[in-house]
Amino acid sequence: MRLDFVLLCGTYFLQYIDKQALSYAAVFDLFTDTGTTSGQYSWLASIFYFAYLFAEWPSSYLAQHFPTARIVSGFVVTWGSILLITAACSNFTGLAICRFLLGAFESVITPCFMMIVSMWYVKAEQPVRAGAFYCFNGVGSMMGGILFYAVGYAKGFPVWKIIFLLCGGVTVIWGLVLMRYLPNNIMQAKRFSPEQKALLIARSQTNRTGVYNRKIKWSQIVEALTDAQVWILFFFTLFNETINGGVANFGKLIVKGVAGGDPLLTTAYGIPQGAFQIFWVFTGPFLASKFKNSRTLIMAIYIVPTVIGAILMWKLPRSNTAGCLLAYYIIGAYVASLVLALQLPATNVGGYTKRVTATAFVFLAYCIGNIIGPHAFLPEEAPIYQTGCKVILSCAAAQIALTLGLRALLIWRNKKRDREAAAAGVDMGIEADVYEDLTDFQNPRFRYAY
Fold first, then answer.
1. One Pfam family name from the record (predicted)?
2. How many CB atoms lie within 10 A of CB 313?
3. pLDDT by residue (tens digit) across 118-140?
4. In this structure, are residues 349 and 442 in contact, taking their beta carbons and an 8 Å threshold?
C-alpha cells in the first residue's frame, strides 16, 4: 500500500473523529457546562457546514494553485489547534465560533482527496480507493467510541473538554506528519523514479477527463451547469446529506434515549455503528469496482437498508433496545452511495474547468443537506424524532428514483455515442485527445461509467 494512500486514510480517520467530537461531548456534560440547549445544538451542527460551504471554493483554489500537500497539512494543523481552543469555551457563542472555524478548515479534505484519487488511479480503481479511505470514517467511529468510553470514567475534569483536547492534540501532530510525507503531485513524489512517474501520468491520462489547466474556461462552466448528470448528482447528494445531517448529529442522542440516559452505555452502544459503516462503505465501492457499470445500481441498493432503518427507528418503542440499535446500525448504509456519488464528477466529467465546477456544485449540495438535516430533528419530539424519520424516508425514496434516472441517462448517452462513432468511423484507441482539455461533451471517445 502506497504511503500517500495511508496518509489519506489516516486523515479521514481523524477528520471524522474531530467533526463528531461535538456529538460525543453532547452525550456527556457539554450542555450543562456551557448552557447550550437542544435547539442551539442543532445550529452548532449546521454552523459547521455553513463554514464548509463558505470556505470550500477558496480552500480548493489554494490547494490547486499552491503545493497541495502543504495547504492540506497546514489546514489540518490549524483545525487541530481550533479543537484545542474549543475546550476553553464556556458558552454557546464560543462553541459556535469554533465550530465555524473547524468547518472552514476541514472543507479542503473531501474535494481535494477526490481530486487526488482521480490523479493517481484509473477509472476502474477509483471507487474502491475512495471507498477504502471513507471506511476510515467507520474506523474513527469505532475507535472514537472506545476511546471516549474510557475517557468517560475520568474524574475531576470535564469529560467533554478531555474529548476536544485529545482530538486536537493528535490532529496537530498528524498535520506535521502530512507536511513531511504527503507529495504535492506525481512529479514531486520522491519515492518514484522518473520512469515510474511517467508511467503513472500515462495511466491517469487513460481516464480521458482532461489535463490540469489553470485557465478558467467559461464555456466549460456553462456546460457543467447545463449538464443533466450534474444536476441529478446535485439533488442526490442534497438528499443524502440531509439524512446525514440528522443522523450524524442526533444519532447518539437517539441512542442515549435507548440507553436510558446513561452516557457511558450510550458510547458503548455506538461502537458497533462504526463496524457497520466500514461494511457499507467498503462493500459498496468494492462491488462497483468488481462489476463493470454497476455503480448506479449499487447506489440505489444501498439506500434500501436506510429505508428499513428509518422505519424501525420511527415505529419501534424505545424499550425495544435490540430493534432500535439495529435500526441505528443499518440506517448508515446511505454513506456507501454517497462515496460513489462524490467520485462520479471526477470519473464522468471531462474538461478541467467543467470537472472542478461539477465537483464544487456537488459539494454545495453536500453542505446544504448537512445544514438542513439537523433541523428536521425537533427537540420536542425526542427521543423518537418522528419528523426526522419521515424526512429520512422521503429523501431515501427520492435518491433511489434519481439514481435510476441517472443510470438511464448515462446508458442512453453511451449508446448514442457508440452509434455516432460507428457512423463516423471514430477510432476508440488512445489518441492525442487524452492530453487535451476536452469536456465529455466535446470528446467523442469519452464513455460514461454508470
1. MFS_1
2. 27
3. 666 666 666 667 667 778 888 88
4. no
